[in-house]
Every structure is written in C-alpha cells, then in structure tokens.
Amino acid sequence: xxxxxxxxxxxxxxxxxxxxxxxxxxxxxxxxxxxxxxxxxxxxxxxxxxxxxxxxxxxxxxxxxxxxxxxxxxx
Length: 75
Description:
Blueprint: E1 7-11, E2 16-24, E3 31-37, E4 40-41, E5 45-46, E6 49-53, H1 54-58, E7 60-63, E8 66-69, E9 71-73
Antiparallel strand pairs: 1-2, 1-9, 2-3, 3-6, 4-5, 7-8
C-alpha cells in the first residue's frame, strides 16, 4: 500500500487538507487518517477535523474516465 506522508493534500474536488496522523479504530483496529480542513465551512466550522479509512484516503477515483488520486500530496 502507498505511503502516507504528513503534510498538505488537495482533494480531487479542489479543497485543501492537512494530514495530522494515523489512528486506529478501537474495535476493528482499522487504520484511519486524521486530517484537518484548511478552509472555513459554514456547516462544520473553521479547520474541521475528519477521519477516513487509510485505504479510502489513498485510493484513486474515476473522474470522466480518468483515474486520479482522491487526495494528492502537495507538500
């Protein structure tokens, strides 16, 4: 599986996020990525925290027939 670097990522829809680190689900031990939105959301507030399964964070998505990373490391 691909390496997960700490730092800033761009979501395929264009918004920026910062990976804080990895966590484990307390029951299943599944690896989860903890990341922070680098924008203000009227629904979730400024710099909202999110978690997503590591495999999903690192997967590719199909956009108009082209495979692109869900999150692209930018630094």
